[in-house]
Write a structure and sequence with these properties.
This protein is of the alpha+beta class and 181 residues long. It has two domains: 122 residues, Roll (SH3 type barrels), CATH 2.30.30.790; 56 residues. Helices cover 37% and strands 29% of the residues.
Length: 181
């Protein structure tokens, strides 16, 4: 019989999570909310630490260089905001915590690649996360279509107003020509 804690954790765990290891180059798709809008942001970098691998609180620390500055982000693997983790490259490392990469830059920070089955590793797809991503995309398309329809309506109103002004101008011009003659 499972413990009570394990039962509660199982309720909130994702069914399929990618097998991420230190030294992997990954793309993490994260749902970001800005005001009332939602979008998917991708953070790509090298995994420098994996913590509590089989737990509900499993996390990975991903590091990347952005404009010459090292940026590290820690992602909780079972968080609802993390939609997908895709492994791009797997490297040979002998440690769990690659803190030495912080002092290295350029060619010194490169990791030697190892052959791996990319399709088999990235097969861990979550249906709910994919549905969420599709829902966000659909919502963005709806707002785009609504904005386009509103813009077209405004342009049609402006065009009608311009044609009315031109017709009025032509009418006045014909009246002045008639009065001069």
């Amino acid at each position: 019989m499972e413990s009570l804690l394990a039962q509660v954790e199982a309720k909130y765990k994702k069914k399929a999570v990618a097998d991420v290891r230190p030294g992997d180059s990954v793309k993490v798709s994260q749902k970001v909310r800005e005001g009332s809008k939602e979008r998917v942001q991708i953070f790509e970098g090298i995994v420098i630490r994996v913590s509590r691998r089989n737990s509900l609180t499993a996390s990975v620390c991903v590091r990347r260089m952005a404009s010459g500055v090292g940026v590290e982000k820690t992602f909780m693997m079972h968080a609802p905001s993390v939609l997908k983790v895709e492994i791009v490259k797997r490297s040979k490392v002998r440690r769990n915590y690659l803190s030495y990469l912080r002092q290295r830059s350029g060619k010194k920070a490169r990791m030697s690649g190892v052959e791996f089955d990319r399709d088999a590793v990235n097969v861990a797809e979550d249906e709910t996360a994919e549905a969420e991503e599709a829902k966000i995309h659909e919502k963005q398309l709806e707002t785009h279509d609504a904005d386009a329809a509103e813009r077209a309506k405004e342009e049609a109103a402006e065009e009608a107003k311009a044609e009315k002004a031109i017709a009025k101008h032509d009418e006045k011009a014909s009246e002045t020509n008639d009065s001069k003659e």
